Amino acid sequence: MTQTNNPLHGITLETIITQLVEHYGWEELGARIKIRCFTEAPSIKSSLRFLRKTDWAREKVEYLYLKTNKLPLPAAKSIQAPAKEPSKKSAPKPNSKPTQTKVVTPTPAVEGQVNSHIWGKRD
User: Fold this and answer.
1) Do 107 and 116 contact (CB within 8 A), yes or no?
2) Which of 10, 47, 54, 67 is deepest in the core (most CB within 10 A)?
3) Which domains does the chain have, with CATH numbers?
4) Helix, strand, coil in percent for the chain, rounding step 5
């Protein structure tokens, strides 16, 4: 398989992180991509370890690298799962009658019959 259309071909992850840190610095990099390996005790080694295991974070770093160096951006990925529609909460209709809630009055407790309306009467 050829990599002619891949602008990241031949560029190591270590090179990408090093160049981003030189360009932005750790603080700005942590502000742009909110992951702990950039904000809490950042280092190249810890960032490499995390980004090699975590695809979503690596994609964000690679995207920022491409954008910073004005390289061609990757095509948008097609989502396999259908998009979730926002839940439609039913708003009351302006001309409809308000719904009535049923009020349950508790049965007075008789000695030895606490919650008898729930559990039944004791023998």
Assistant:
1) yes
2) 47
3) 13-68 (1.10.720.30)
4) 40, 0, 60
- 96 three-class SS: coil
Amino acid at 22: E
Kindly report the number of other CB atoms within 10 A of residue 51's CB atom. 23
Phi, psi (deg, nearest 5) at residue 120: 95, 165
Q: Which helix (H) or strand (E) holds 20?
A: helix 13-24
Asked whether 21 and 44 are in contact (CB, 8 A), the reply is: yes
Which has the closest alpha carbon to 47: 9, 68, 19? 19
Name the residue with higher pLDDT: 1 or 60.
60
Instruction: Quickly count: other Cβ atoms within 10 Å of residue 57's Cβ.
Output: 19
Quick: pLDDT tens for 99-119.
677 766 665 555 666 666 666
Tell me the whole-structure pTM to 2 decimals: 0.58
Residue 64's pLDDT is what?
A: 93
